[in-house]
Amino acid sequence: MKALHTDKAPAAIGPYSQAIEVNGMVFASGQIPLDPATGNVVEGGIKEQTRQALTNAKAIMEAAGLSLANVVKTTVFMADMADFAAMNEVYSTFFTEPYPARSAVAIKALPKGVLVEVECIAAR
Fold this sequence. Notes:
This protein is 21% helix and 29% strand. The chain has two helices and six strands. It has a six-stranded mixed beta sheet with strand order 1-2-3-6-4-5, with helices on one face. β4, α2 and β5 form a beta-alpha-beta unit. α1 packs parallel to α2. The longest helix is centred in the middle third of the chain and has 18 residues. The model has no long low-confidence stretch (mean pLDDT 97).
């Protein structure tokens, strides 16, 4: 098992790794829309927050020597399922066919009061 880290994505804010690689698979922790340069939540709504969360996920994949094309599964957590269409509009600009498998769920609350969190699993 190998821990992965990049300064181009927010540092872990607890006892976890940005990502772990094992047996050719990369398991990235959920990414919230924090600007890695400031540590602050990006301004704007669901579109801006989805863009930043996925930009952070992309940086983690790149640190592993991969790209978002290697992602086989994502899970999208949203504070409000009414934001699904807007989230999906931005999400679709980060992935190409064949698209990763995906789950999208609404939950009661996310860290720092953000609107979205995205986790990814990738294969070499």
